Amino acid sequence: MEKLNYDVLKKSGYKGYILEKAPEKVLQFGEGNFLRAFVNYWFDLANEKADWNGKCVLVQPIAPGLAQLINEQEGLYTLYLRGSENGKKVDAKRVISSVSRCLNPYEAEDYKKVMEVAASDDLEIIVSNTTEAGIVYDPACKKDDMPPSSYPAKLTQVLYTRFKAGKKPIIMLACELIDNNGKELLKCVNKYIEQWGLEDEFKAWVNDKCTFCGSLVDRIVPGRIRDPKQVAELEEINGYTDPLIDVGEVFGLWVIEGPADLTDKLPFHKAGLDANVFVSPDMTPYKKRKVRILNGAHTGFVLGAYLAGFNIVRDCMHDDVVLGFMNKMLADEVVPVLPLDKEDCKKFAAAVQDRFNNPFVDHELMSISLNSSAKWKARNLPSLLEYVELKGKLPKCLAMGLAAYIAFYSNDIQALTDKGLVCKRSAGNEYTVSDDRWILEFYYEHRNDSVKDLVHAVMTNEKLWDQDLTKVLDFEAVTVKNVEMIRKEGAKAAYASCL
Fold first, then answer.
1. SS3 301
2. What are the Cα distances from residue 31, in Å, to 56, 181, 352?
3. Which residues in the chain are classed under CATH 1.10.1040.10?
4. Cβ-count burial of 108 within 10 angstroms (0-12 exposed, 13-18 middle, 19+ buried)?
C-alpha cells in the first residue's frame, strides 16, 4: 500500500477538505504530535471556513525529528479526534493539509531555507511549542551559530534576518507549558540582542512592533496509535499508509493573550472558532479555571480512587460514588469560589466528565499521581482556603482529598528505594509513590506514626504547604477522622460519606 501524499489521497477517494497550494504564512518551531493535533488543526479549519489560504512551515527544534517523514508525505497526515461529547462517543477523521513542509535547521541547506522563510513577504505568524525546557537562555549560543542550540537564540536569528530584510513585524504565539510563556520568550530574545550587540533599532522593532503573545493550550493528545492491528485496519479503510497518524481528544481550547485588534489579524474569529480559539487581554482567569477545575479534579479524586481499587480514569467515571464525589467537589466547592463567570465554569466542569470518560484513552491513575504534593498545593489547596474564607466552614470533598493524599503516601509503607516510596493497597499489590526525594523521606520517617501524629506532622510541615494547615478551622481534627475512615472502611466508603 502506498504512503500518503496528494496523489495517493486523490486515488483513495477521500472526500474531505484539502488545500494543496497556498502562501507560507506560519513558521512553526515544533513538529510533534501535540502541535499537529492542535495548532495545525486550527489553521486547517481556518483555511476551510475562512478562506485564510495559508500554510505552515514546520521546524524541528532538535536534531532527530519528523522532517523527512513529513516531507515524504508533502505535509499531509491523518488526524483522529476521539472522545466523548455530551455523553456520545466521537471518532472524527480529518486529513490535515495546512502544513507545506518541515525543515531541519541542523542541516546547512535547511538552515538557509528557515532564514528564507524568515525574510519572506508571506510570513505573518511564528508559533512554538518546544516543551517546558525550550524557553531557556543559554549564553553559549552565538550570533553566527548555524543553528544555535537554544530555541530563543534561533528565534532571535529569525527575527534579525527579517528585520534586516525590511519586512513587516510578526505575531509570536508561544504555546510552551510555562507561566508567562510569551513574556519569558521575549526576555530571552532581549538577552541575546544585548549579548550579540545587535542594533537598538532592532530591539525597538522586536519590542514595539512585533507582538509576543502568551497562550494557554488545552487538548489531551495521546498521539500515535500503538496497536498494529488497529493501524492495519485504518490503512485498509483509508487506502494508504500514514506513519504520521495523530490522535487527540475532541475538546480543544486555545486562549491567546494579546491586544483586542489581534482578533482580526488572526484567522480564527472569521472562521467561527470563537468557542475554541480566541484572544483575551489576560489569560490568567482561563489558566486558573483549567488548573482548579480540570487539574484539580484529577488530583482531588485519583489518589483515593486508586486506593479503592481503580486503575484508569475512565472506570472512575462509571462508578456512582467516585463520579459523584468529583462532581460534588467541582459544583459545590470549586466553581463557587472562582472569580470567573459561573455559567462558563459550570460548562467547563461539565465537559470534564466527558473528557475523563474518553473511550479511546486509558489514562492511568498512577501516572496522574506523580508529584501529588506540589499538585495538591497548587490545584486544590487554594480552592479549599478560599471556600473557608467565603463560607466559614470546611469543604467536605476538598478536605477529604487531603486525607486521601496522606493515605496514599502512607498506606502500608514497604520500603524507600531509588525509584520511590513503595506502599501497598488493600487489593494486595505494591505501588511506588513518585515525588521529590525529601517528601518521600519525610513519609518514610513517619511510617510508624499513629494517624493523629502523622496528620499533625504533615499539616504542620510548612515546607510542603508554605503555611501551617492546622490553623485552618478544625481541618486537623477532620483530617484525622478522614484518614482513619479511609484506613478502616476504605477510600470508596470515605468518598461516599461526603455525598
1. helix
2. 10, 19, 28
3. 285-496
4. exposed
User: Pairing between strand 125-128 and 99-103?
Assistant: unpaired
- The number of angstroms, rounded, from the C-alpha of 479 to the middle of its chain's C-alpha atoms is 32
Q: Cell numbers for 159, please give them.
A: 527575527
Q: Which long-range contacts (CB under 8 A, 24 or more apart) does 412-415 make?
A: 413/443, 413/444, 413/447
pLDDT tens per residue across span 79-124: 999 988 777 889 999 999 999 999 999 999 999 999 999 999 999 9
Helices 342-356 and 320-328, axial angle in degrees (round to 10): 160
Residue 241: which of 252, 261, 225 has the closest Cα? 225
For residue 217, list its beta bridge partners.
254
For the segment(s) 6-280, the CATH number from 3.40.50.920, 1.10.10.10, 3.40.50.720, 3.40.50.2300 is 3.40.50.720
| Phi and psi torsions of 196, nearest 5° | -90, 0
**Which residues neighbour 343 within 8 Å (Cβ) at sequence distance 6 or greater?**
none
Interval 223-250: pLDDT, tens: 888 789 999 999 999 999 999 999 999 9
Could you give the 3-state DSSP secondary structure of residue 236?
helix
Tell me the whole-structure pTM to 2 decimals.
0.82
